[in-house]
Fold this sequence. Notes:
This protein is mainly beta and about 475 residues long. It has two domains: about 5-50 and about 305-470, no CATH class; about 65-280, no CATH class. Helices cover about 10% and strands about 40% of the residues. It has helices at about 190-200, 210-215, 285-290, 315-325, 390, 405-415, and strands at about 5-15, 25-30, 40-45, 45-50, 65-70, 75-80, 100-115, 120-130, 145-155, 165-170, 175-180, 185-190, 220-225, 230-235, 245-255, 260-270, 275-285, 300, 305-315, 335-345, 360-365, 370, 400-405, 420-425, 445-450, 460-470. The strands form five sheets. Strands 5, 6, 7, 8, 9, 12, 13, 14, 15, 16 and 17 form an eleven-stranded antiparallel beta sheet that branches. Strands 3-2-1-26-20-23 form a six-stranded antiparallel beta sheet. Strands 4-19-24-21-22 form a five-stranded antiparallel beta sheet. The longest helix has 9 residues, at about 190-200. It starts with a strand and ends with a strand. Mean pLDDT is about 85; it is low at about 1-45.
Amino acid sequence: MLNTQRYILTLLSAIFVISSGCQKSDLIGLDVDNAIKTDTITTSVEVSTVKEDSIITNGSAQHAFGYINDPVLGTTEANLALSFNLPNTSFSFGTTPIIDSVVLALQYGKEFYGDSTLTSRFAIQAYELDTTIGNESYYLNKTWKHKTDTLGTKSVRTFSWGDSVRVVQVVDGILDTPKTVQPHLRIQLDKAKLSTLLLGAGSTDLATNASFRRYLKGIYLTINKANSTGTGGITFFDLLSSTNLSGLQVYYRNTTSAGAADTNMVLFPTTSSIAASNVKHVHNASVVLKENDSNVSEVYVQALGGYRTKIKLNDLTINQLKALIPTTAGQKKTVSINRAELVIPEVGTSSSIFKPSPRLALYRTDIAGVRKPVPDNAIGTDSRYLPESIFGGFYNTSKRRYVFVVTSYIQDLLNGTLKEFNTYIAPIRKNLTGTANINASGITATRAILPGKNHPTEKIKLNIIYTRPD
């Protein structure tokens, strides 16, 4: 019978580079059970920070909006382009309508990242779009042309995304009544301009949603940075919800046959498919300088098309890991990985505003650069996959770190079943999805700061527990 010995292999990886060039001089510590002996070797391990891919934003679960000044990374600006559908296919304002007011209503999503106190002020401006939102895919870096005259402005001290709103419900033929509705932002728009636009629409313009969107292209929402104060923040709008009240709320009057005034409210709805965020990152010069420097103390991950971190164990590393395993003469070096954990400390300054991302995703790419799940997270495609809560990536606030279980991934790399091209980590929302999380996230605005090669106290570790035949 074969006797088995148990070894703990701790791989401390600390080289972080933006470029894909090969970097050397990291440490691997081989710790044997019962402290029999400890060996240290130098191997080639690459860990780097790279720019994130751009993200398709129309059709998204929630849309980013706002402005934030991150003292470490720099500024992030999220603007929003919106188009609108008709209330119904046979819509008409009726006889001699008079518009009393037009309100842009946007239902909040499930996240705000930034300053939630009253020290920041957001100066919001709305413009008429000069570009039609069509059926194509729009990325976060898409710029939107708009007219220069403002349609509306609003100054808010905080996006009250957790607070319900009390509004007056206007229903044809009955008394107006107050009603509590979902948390949302309300911006009063220019009544004269919107009256001209809406009441000037012809029958052809009102025939279909597509023809109406060609007539009234939509609204562009942005933050006036010069008139805003404080750190700021990024909020999200949910335009997919079944309770969606987002769109142009038009309050108007008709004269009845008896000569009385009849007040009405009609919603020209916006939806996720006809809305798109435009996100601009302007990173601090100190961050940009670090992008091509392997000798740094920290690296970054940032959502909304900002940064992701690349972790790479190349062929030389895997071969040297195999070489560390003691074997008898002529015996094949066969290893069974019992557990492998990638441990990633977070080293940012503690802040109530810039909290670390509550969750990171980990994935790999193939030879063509296509994103693929690691076996431990290949939900539905690999029988060895782990539930999301076990696979990990969730931030531990007490230990200030993220842990991924990558047992099957390391096993496949050692066996040669998989060839590693690149492995990445990046922020995602905390909620469980039931799927492998490999796509860049446009539905969170979080970031995290991780230790680089020269960090004075913290390192990224890969802890491997394995057995071998004696």
